[in-house]
């Protein structure tokens, strides 16, 4: 019995250590799901017809195009903060195609930043739209911000009788 246990351990231990070595870093954990976050957000932006980009469900609300552009601008601000740099010059699009491109480009920008963050950067304080935060707090704030406003945008779609794209992860 003992030699059987030793044989099983001899086979399993290298697999356990190999999987531990392949485990994502702190930034890698965020990066793993960032692509899906971006794809769903862009799909929501694409789902609204161009002629409805000026729709707002309430006079105090941003219109749909402004909401999508707001997500994009904040993405750039959060990710530039993580790099301790200023965001690039940002456009102010209002037409659907330009807004969708701005949103998509903002996710591309962050996709180039997030996977390369070191543990030191994650544990260091940076500027963000929400004030000075640790890098890992900025990543969390970024995800929450996108999900919050994308959820609002899905209600805008439903108000127009449009079924939002299915959730993906």
Question: How does this structure look, described?
Answer:
The protein is mostly helical. Helix content is 64%, strand content 2%. The chain contains 6 helices and 2 strands. The protein has helices spanning 2-22, 26-47, 64-82, 96-113, 119-122, 135-159, and strands at 125-126, 133-134. It has a two-stranded antiparallel sheet with strand order 1-2. Helix 3 (64-82) packs parallel to helix 4. The radius of gyration is 21 Å and the shape is globular. Residues 5-23 have low confidence and may be disordered.
Largest sheet properties: 2 strands, antiparallel
Distance between the amino and carboxyl termini? 44 Å
Q: State the shape.
A: globular
Number of strands: 2
**Computed CA radius of gyration, to the nearest angstrom:** 21 Å
Strand content: under 5%
Q: Roughly what percent helix? A: 55-70%
What structural class is derived from the secondary structure elements?
A: mainly alpha
Give a brief description.
The protein is mostly helical.
Secondary structure elements and their pairing?
Elements: H1 2-22, H2 26-47, H3 64-82, H4 96-113, H5 119-122, E1 125-126, E2 133-134, H6 135-159
Antiparallel strand pairs: 1-2
Helix pairs in contact: 2-4, 2-6, 3-4, 3-6
Characteristics:
169 residues; mainly alpha; two-stranded antiparallel ribbon; 64% helix
């Amino acid at each position: 019995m003992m030699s059987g246990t030793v044989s099983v351990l001899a086979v399993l231990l290298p697999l356990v250590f190999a999987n531990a070595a392949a485990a994502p870093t702190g930034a890698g954990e965020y990066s793993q799901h960032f692509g899906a976050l971006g794809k769903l957000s862009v799909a929501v932006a694409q789902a609204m017809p161009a002629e409805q980009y000026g729709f707002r469900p309430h006079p105090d609300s941003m219109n749909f195009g402004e909401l999508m552009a707001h997500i994009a601008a904040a993405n750039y601000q959060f990710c530039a903060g993580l790099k301790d740099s200023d965001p690039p010059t940002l456009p102010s699009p209002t037409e659907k195609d330009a807004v969708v491109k701005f949103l998509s480009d903002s996710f591309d920008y962050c996709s180039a930043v997030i996977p390369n963050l070191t543990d030191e950067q994650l544990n260091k304080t940076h500027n963000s739209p929400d004030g000075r935060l640790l890098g890992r707090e900025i990543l969390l704030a970024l995800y929450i911000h996108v999900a919050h406003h994308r959820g609002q945008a899905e209600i805008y779609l439903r108000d127009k009788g449009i079924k939002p794209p299915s959730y993906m992860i």
